[in-house]
Amino acid sequence: MDPSSLQSPELQNFxxxxxxxxxxxxxxxxxxxxxxxxCITSTPGSKFSSSESNCLSNCAQRYMEMxxxxxxxxxxxx
Amino acid sequence: xxxxxxxxxxxxxxxxxxxNDIMDQVKTQLEQAYAEQFLETVRDKCFDKCITKPGSSLxxxxxSCISRCVDRYIEATGIISKAxxxxx
Lengths: 78, 88
Fold this sequence. Notes:
Chain A is mostly helical. Helix content of chain A is 76%, strand content 0%. Chain A has a single domain, classed as Helix Hairpins, CATH 1.10.287.
């Protein structure tokens, strides 16, 4: 392997992109799991009810809102 | 590892990796890891939902629960990403 190719800006850029993708992937995976447990309480049907799909999207958005609140809470303690 | 500092011992030019080869490799391996991880999660979730009282074999109703569960979990993943990234 040519060691200089590891330093190429193209590769660094690619790796940064993949890092970001991995973070997003992890976040979506974690939230899907948590929200599935909260929102899908009965046996899965052939279609989500509107309350189930609303619950899923509310769940994700409230999680983000809560994260912000928690950060602010910590900041106010300093 | 001296294969990094010295030229590859055999097979000449074809074993020289280009930046593109490295990126393709990384991409393929990440895809595979993501798929495996997703599969594992779906397995756990659907086992919880559908196999509530394990019998001596998978019943027909457990089987259909599993296919619906897989479909819904994939759909739920889509709903969550939409809620996170295309809101407001």
